[in-house]
Design a protein that fits this description.
mainly beta; 9 strands; 4-stranded antiparallel sheet; Immunoglobulin-like
Length: about 120
Amino acid sequence: MAAGGFFAIAGRAHPFLGSIVAPTVSVDAAHAPLSVSPLGPFRPNPFQSATELSFRLDVADRVSIHVFDLAGREVATPLDRERFAAGEHRVMLRARLPAAGVYLCRLTTSTLDLTRRLVFLP
């Protein structure tokens, strides 16, 4: 685009000096961001007896899932360094939690460390 021109804010034209250039970004495959989060939502959430967690691994890895109360105390470990192949996975969590409330569920692998909020209503 040539230097100078007009842009609109709230339906009114405003002059500007300069030019608009479409930025070009290149990212090599090893550092490309994921298109979606590798950790999906809990379904259902809130839950009473069980909830399903979905996650995606780009390579085979060991997976741990730990559940913490809001004071930071670990209250459950549904998975502890269990081996999963690359791909999409679903895990049913039937954690016995001490009381109704909000908990934090942390999924860790050698390359991921992700946390989601979980609501338990017994």
